[in-house]
Amino acid sequence: MGTMPYLHFRGDCAAALRFYADLMGGTDLQMMPYSASPDAPADWQASDRIMHGQVTLGDGVLMASDFPPGQAGDAQAAVSIMQTFDTEAQGRAVFDGLAAEGDVITPFGPTFFSPGFGMLRDRFGTHWIVTGGRAPQRQ
After folding, report:
1. Which of 18, 36, 64, 121 could bridge to 7 as Cys pair (CB 3.0-4.6 Å)?
2. How far apart are CA 121 and CA 8, in angstroms?
3. What pLDDT is stored for residue 126 in this prediction?
């Protein structure tokens, strides 16, 4: 059993998942539009919105969908996705990529618990916590 984040978008799920896959070296990118459903209502048949998508990022899987055609909702207002990287440089590169056209909440930099830590909301509305590197062990 495992827990996987599932994000909801307002029509830009495909663009978001492609962006995350490209930026973070994601693999196994999969997307199924609402129009692929054999039971889809007529207004869904012409839609390119994503009914289910997923991408593997490191050891985890990020899943997502668009709200159904004709429906709206509050996307990722109160949830953050945490992504960790082995080095500070990797974390900074991903943070900077996610921050482009987004809003930085906490600039990426050293903390007492990590050589690199930052928080932001990306251009798709997803909140991220990014860390890079490991803090030295205290004796």
Report:
1. 64
2. 14
3. 92
